[in-house]
Write a structure and sequence with these properties.
This protein is an alpha/beta fold. The chain has 2 domains: about 300 residues, Adenylosuccinate Synthetase, subunit A, domain 3 (Adenylosuccinate Synthetase, Chain A, domain 3, Alpha-Beta Complex), CATH 3.90.170; about 100 residues, Adenylosuccinate Synthetase, subunit A, domain 2 (Orthogonal Bundle), CATH 1.10.300. Helices cover about 30% and strands about 20% of the residues. The chain is built from 13 helices and 19 strands. The strands form 4 sheets. A 10-stranded mixed beta sheet has the order 9-7-5-2-10-1-11-14-18-19, with helices on both faces. Strands 12, 13, 15, 16 and 17 form a 5-stranded mixed beta sheet that branches. Strands 3-4 form a two-stranded antiparallel ribbon. Helix 2 packs parallel to helix 7, helix 3 packs across helix 4 and helix 6 packs antiparallel against helix 7. The chain is globular.
């Protein structure tokens, strides 16, 4: 069985959860390798919708080990709540493992996140306010608190007092806030530590062993390529590495153990928060896509910005991730448009470029150059084979493959498991979509 990385090929929210769920059914292990509870992965099974923020989607399959790896920042309260929610539905979490080295989000991280966004005013990035950036900043500054410290009461108490004292000047305006009360934080997190202690483990050797197994690993990415700290539309990015390379950085598995990378993309584009968005539609068409696609954040509920598909971005994503195939989703959302547009290049002043410019986040006078294709009036939600789709829909999917330079292995025509169709059998088999 191949070891496969699943990445968002756009700005996140591409429905990676559904793809991870499909690939996980025959895997040994599903490993979340980065991000925090700012992510939201949704899986629909038998009419029931499951929303995950930290626990890998593979938890729905008994016998699959699910790892929250070293590269993740963990909000213990969110994780405990997620565990309790799954148990209340009769779903076992016995296969869950949390890396000893994963960093912990503390209340002062969330406070710092909110205050920093308020300070920026109109220049705010649009974070979720969940403390992700400050927790990663502490990690880079080598003063973060990790899971093995959380579950050791004496060590944790000393570290919390040390860290709250160290940032007292930085957060002086928040004096009296509960997030700065060391005793209250220690007491709250002691409850979380008790609940999470059975799952905390040294996961690097566990992941390495699974990578060598017959069934292999699905590496679950969070957010999307254009939100990568180094390779995304900086500064409007997240604080981690959602790209495929992050799977190695966040787990301890070397790149030679990765056999393929599935890029998940919508049939249109969306983005949450501030930052450049070349194909954004600030009109009735954008509103129509948002409502038909229920484009509201899984984690925050914020309305997503919507626009036509941008294949300049897909080609860039293919390059920096080494994509071996695409999984194209939300094709059903485009049903009913007389024509659908695809951005193939950008006009920047007098220049025309078909590759992502390094200054995209600050480019002036940028406008997309579109190719227009016939739409399809027919509902596609009941299709179960690629051949069942209207010819114009199939033409659109083939054109996306041509423009992105990557084969489209599967296409999604709805949220449920059975609404995933094989487009390219060879690419789908190589990625593990056809395994049982």
């Amino acid at each position: 069985m191949p070891n496969i990385v699943v990445v968002g090929a756009q700005w996140g929210d591409e429905a990676k959860g559904k793809i991870v769920d499909r690939l996980a059914r025959g895997a040994e292990m599903v490993v979340r390798y980065g991000g925090g509870s700012n992510a939201g992965h949704t899986v629909t099974v038998d009419g029931r919708t499951h929303k995950f923020h930290l626990i890998p989607c593979g938890i729905l399959y008994p016998g699959v080990t699910c790892v929250i790896a070293d590269g993740v920042v963990v909000d213990p309260g969110v994780l405990v709540s997620e565990i309790e929610g799954l148990r209340s539905q009769g779903i076992s979490v016995e296969g869950l493992r949390i890396s000893t080295n994963a960093h912990v989000i503390l209340p002062y991280h969330r406070l710092q996140d909110r205050l920093e966004e308020q300070r920026k005013g109109a220049g705010a990035i649009g974070t979720t306010g969940r403390g992700i950036g400050p927790a990663y900043a502490d990690k880079a500054a080598r003063c973060g608190i990790r899971m093995h410290e959380l579950v050791d009461p004496s060590v944790f108490a000393a570290r919390v007092r040390e860290q709250i004292a160290a940032r007292a000047c930085l957060l002086a305006s928040a004096e009296g806030d509960p997030a700065m009360d060391a005793d209250a934080v220690i007491a709250e997190y002691a409850v979380y530590a008790e609940a999470l202690r059975p799952y905390v483990a040294h996961t690097v050797p566990l992941v390495a062993e699974a990578a060598r197994s017959r069934r292999g690993i699905v590496f679950e990415g969070a957010q999307g390529t254009l939100l990568d700290l180094d390779l995304g539309t900086y500064p409007y990015v997240t604080s981690s590495h959602p790209v495929a390379g992050g799977a190695c950085l966040g787990t301890g598995v070397g790149p030679t153990a990765i056999h393929g990378v599935v890029g998940v993309a919508k049939s249109y584009s969306t983005r949450v928060g501030a930052g450049v968005f070349p194909t954004e539609l600030l009109d009735a068409t954008g509103d129509r896509i948002r409502e038909r696609g229920n484009e509201y954040g899984t984690t925050t509920g914020r309305p997503r910005r919507c626009g036509w598909l941008d294949t300049v971005i897909l080609r860039y994503s293919a390059q920096v991730n080494g994509l071996t195939c695409l999984s194209l989703g939300h094709v059903d959302v485009l049903t009913g448009f007389d024509t659908v547009k695809v951005a193939t290049a950008y006009r920047i002043g007098e220049r025309v470029v078909d590759t992502l410019p390094p200054d995209l986040a600050h480019a002036r006078d940028l406008s997309p150059i579109y190719e227009e294709l016939p739409g399809w009036p027919e509902d596609v939600g009941d299709a179960r084979r690629f051949e069942d789709l209207p010819e114009t829909c199939r033409t659109y999917i083939r054109r996306v493959a041509e423009l992105s330079g990557v084969p489209v292995a599967t296409v999604s025509v709805g949220p449920s498991r059975e609404q995933l169709l094989i487009v390219d059998p060879a690419a789908a088999e190589a990625a593990g979509f056809t395994r049982s």
